[in-house]
């Protein structure tokens, strides 16, 4: 029953975020921490409750959003084609909150 609730929430969130990000459903469950998403950050472990998220510092503008029962959604910036004769360079503000951090600098020839 809880899994079905998580799937319905996932569908709802994906519909809202579809224009902002690419979403991937992953299992971050761990039997030691039931009903939590357990995210190994390399130097520490983050325990997320339903509805909480954590931004990954090791990847540009990527976060994990916990949707319950150990299931989480990995969200990254959507690919947006640059203007004609232009290319993206760096992120404008890597430290900004998601999805604001998705904005990139563009150079046009």
TrEMBL record:
Principal location: secreted
Signal sequence interval, chain numbering: 1-21
Pfam families reported in the protein's UniProt record: SVWC (PF15430)
Keyword annotations of the record: Secreted, Signal
Subcellular localization: Secreted
Single domain sequence ranges: 37-108
Gene Ontology CC annotations of this record: extracellular region
The protein's name in its UniProt record: Single domain-containing protein
């Amino acid at each position: 029953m809880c899994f079905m609730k998580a799937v319905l929430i996932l569908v709802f969130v994906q519909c809202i975020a579809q224009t902002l990000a690419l979403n991937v459903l992953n299992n971050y469950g761990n039997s030691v921490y039931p009903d939590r998403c357990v995210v190994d950050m390399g130097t520490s472990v983050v325990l997320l409750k339903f509805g909480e998220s954590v931004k990954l510092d090791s990847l540009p503008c990527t976060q994990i959003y916990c949707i319950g029962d150990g299931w989480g959604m990995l969200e990254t910036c959507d690919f947006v084609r640059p203007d004609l004769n232009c290319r993206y360079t760096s992120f404008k503000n890597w430290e900004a909150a998601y999805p604001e951090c998705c904005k990139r600098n563009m150079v046009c020839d």
